[in-house]
Design goal:
Blueprint: H1 15-28, H2 30-61, E1 64-65, E2 73-74, H3 78-84, H4 87-99, H5 102-117, H6 124-136, H7 139-149, H8 156-163, H9 178-203, H10 207-215, H11 220-231, H12 233-248, H13 252-257, H14 270-280, H15 284-311
Length: about 325
């Protein structure tokens, strides 16, 4: 005896039905597509308007003789040839590199302060606030205050040194002391920012690591070298990269404290020199070529830093 299945009704799906379905879906989701395109277009338009076009325009401007207002005269690579032969360019570039000396000094001081402020000491909240005040203060106002403090006759710095019988120099008018004076001010200005970041990194280190190291007989210095330093390395990497970029663009304090570039051109930074060539001498094409060279140098240093950081990556299992 055989049992046959009951007949079932089947719907035939034709090409016309599929086409009608796709058309209905497109109509249904048309608004979503429009809004998605609008949101996708916004960053693309911003990238074209504020990055690609200015970069392309800057590259072309660096190949012209242009005063920033009139017509551009194409001169090829003459600006770059003049740049290589310009002693003031190399002097300003050397000064800019010299300012980078303050980066490791500032990071070391910031880490030391972060370690101190991470302990339960009286008034640590007050000190955290005090160290961060210069960060949020106006750079122009701070530069004016430090210009007064560095005055060789009545400045606060020399008055303080005189208490110990030390005759301070005329800081901003002495070629040997002008750059160190600006470095000291820059370290003081950025100390609070680096300290806050290091403090967060130090407090995020698992206490179990220190306890295990102490049980193994590791002293304070060894715990600092083998645990604290590796654990705060990401913050150090971030601060080094951002400080190099920021240090290469130092301008405001130089323009206020040493508006002529300092004695014997001792404080002129590359950005300050670019600004003078562009807006005082109206050599916009030449200034643009220097700006592009500076950007390339910063990019090279940043890439090297990223590669070094990637090679030193570590993880805790």
């Amino acid at each position: 005896m055989s049992i046959t299945a009951p007949p079932t009704s089947q719907t035939t799906w034709t090409k016309e039905d599929a086409k009608a379905s796709r058309k209905a879906n497109r109509k249904l989701h048309r608004k979503e597509y429009i809004w998605a395109g609008a949101f996708m277009a916004a960053p693309v338009i911003g990238w074209l308007a504020f990055l690609l076009f200015p970069l392309a325009f800057s590259v072309y401007a660096s190949l012209t003789n242009w005063n920033g207002l009139g017509n551009m005269t194409f001169i090829g690579f003459d600006n770059y040839v003049m740049l290589v032969q310009d002693p003031y360019f190399w002097k300003a570039l050397g000064n800019t590199v010299f300012y980078m000396i303050g980066i490791p000094i500032g990071l070391a001081l910031s880490l030391g302060l972060a370690l101190a402020l991470s302990r339960r000491i009286p008034g640590r909240t007050f000190f955290r606030t005090v160290y961060y005040i210069p960060v949020i203060s106006s750079l122009a106002a701070i530069a004016i205050l430090w210009q007064w403090a560095y005055n060789g006759d009545f400045g606060l710095v020399n008055q303080f040194l005189s208490i110990f019988g030390i005759e301070g120099p005329n800081w901003l008018m002495d070629p040997a002391w002008a750059k160190p004076a600006l470095i000291i001010m820059a370290i003081w200005k950025g100390l609070g920012y680096s300290t806050i970041l290091y403090l967060a990194a130090v407090q995020a280190v698992p206490r179990s690591l220190y306890e295990a190291a102490a049980l193994d007989g590791a002293g304070g210095w060894r715990r600092f070298r083998t645990i604290t330093l590796p654990m705060v390395r990401p913050v150090t990497f971030f601060l080094v990269v951002t400080n190099i970029i920021g240090g290469s663009m130092i301008f405001t304090e130089i323009n206020i404290m040493t508006p002529t570039g300092g004695p014997s051109w001792s404080t002129a930074s590359l950005v300050w020199y670019i600004w003078n060539k562009a807006f005082k001498n109206l050599q916009m094409g030449y200034a643009t070529s220097m700006a592009l060279v500076l950007g390339i140098l910063v990019l090279i240093v940043t890439v090297i830093q990223f590669r070094m950081n990637k090679r030193n990556d570590f993880s805790i299992e």
